[in-house]
Model the fold of this input.
Amino acid sequence: MNPPGDYSSSELLTINAARLLRDGEVVFVGVGLPNLACNLARRTHAPNLLMIYEAGVIGAQPARLPLSIGDPTLVSGATSVCSMYDIFAFYLQRGNVDVGFLGGAQIDRFGNINATIIGDYEHPKVRLPGSGGSMEIAAWANRCYIITPHQRRRFPEKVDFRTSAGFLDGRVEREQANLRGAGPQAVVTNLGVMEPDESGELILTALHPGATVEQVQENTGWEIKTTPALRTTAPPTGDELRILREELDPTGIYI
Amino acid sequence: MNKITSLSNAVKEYVRPGDTLYAAGFTHLIPFAAGHEIIRQGIDGLVLARATPDLIYDQMVAAGCARKVIFSYMGNPGVGSLRFVRGEIEAGRLEWEEYSHFSMISRLQAGAAGLPFMPMNPTAAGDLEKANPQYRTVVDPYSGGQVVVVPALQPDVAIVHVQRADNQGNAHIWGIIGEQKEAAFASKKVVVTAEEIVDEDVIRSDPNRTLIPGFIVDAVCHIPFCAHPSYTQGYYDRDNNFYLQWDEISRNRESVQSYLDEWVYGVKNRSEYWQKLGPEVHQRLQAGSRPSAVVDYGEY
Done:
């Protein structure tokens, strides 16, 4: 379902994700839309964004669109390359990462993510790729953002398998677990933005231009609350669209 | 000691049916040529460990080499699903043991350091720890808090591809170094494949770049383009087209079999495979030049 306006769902997702990043932050980047979002932020409002890739690359300045998490273009011109153990231990576990991006097959009411299986673990109906780095990113990055299309099957009330922690069964439970990261701060979809309330439950806080609360409800597996101060996000600017289309993904691989 | 041998001899000598194998390389330097040689020799019952099984293990599983996979991200990197392994798991035909990236790498780190296990901070997600009994939680004797631990992984054999090595196995690696060093130190036997075999003098000119010392290496094989369709930094690019093609090939058993027949069983070795790829592919994967500034170690 494409939103109105002259841009695609993926462009809308990417641009709104980019706007969440602040200049000077250290961000743990995944391939695909998060990678586009980070590179877009670096070319607009956050020129000093430090990009870390889970393959062990620090301060990457990719000259072309990376097509895998370990693309050689990430290495050439980076400030540092380290082992996989170091990137997870010294950078992530030690607390040197401000922002992590996550996705997954299912995201539940409390922002927990399933990237492992649909159905029973021993006899999976669908075997998904699994955690990769997401278990640790969700726990240890200072803040996390989730980017995903808004579809009912992606937003069940409870995930089949908790691959990575959101607010568990509520904010109190995450606080008791004493994780160093604050957990998911926003879920950006093609319809709008959801953020956790005081209890850790994801509620609708912003709609993209033209999207409706009804559309969000139809595509969400629990009865979604809406903040009284519901915002409308600013439409993508000509500049943002131009950088995405002409500089970052000129052949339209991700957008 | 000169350890140079052919890949076919190295595989015959050091990879035995039933072994636990770690073919190293995170996206970079994946030793596909060795995977193909193992397939050609029909070695089976293997436990295939890798953080990302990647296409190399998808092909080895398809060829019937494996009884089990150990992994932390089972996808086709940058493309989507790793279809063959996924299908075998869903059909209940393949055993698997699963970790997060950090716990998988921590297992190797412990193995490489000769420790029984490695502690990590808890992540609270919980379900993987319940599903895989290898994860345990123990009390930190200093703070009284809890840490999650995973046991050391010490594979029977590691295969590590590198840019250059001397004939004793001293190996220079640059670019993404993933878990190359850890896999080599953790494993009981180590086979090094190299884009180039160089003089010991070249190695000694830049000792900081030697990730793997020759004395832990059992065999050295000179295999240019060993990593295709993955890549070797500074030598050739990743063949992203092939990763996309594999997504189609791996949709059914017949097309996988005809791929194996043509590109694995149908060629004698990597050099024949590379020639068969042809000039269009060679040219598309060429890397430009971007040398580092020279480092002066000083004369003392």
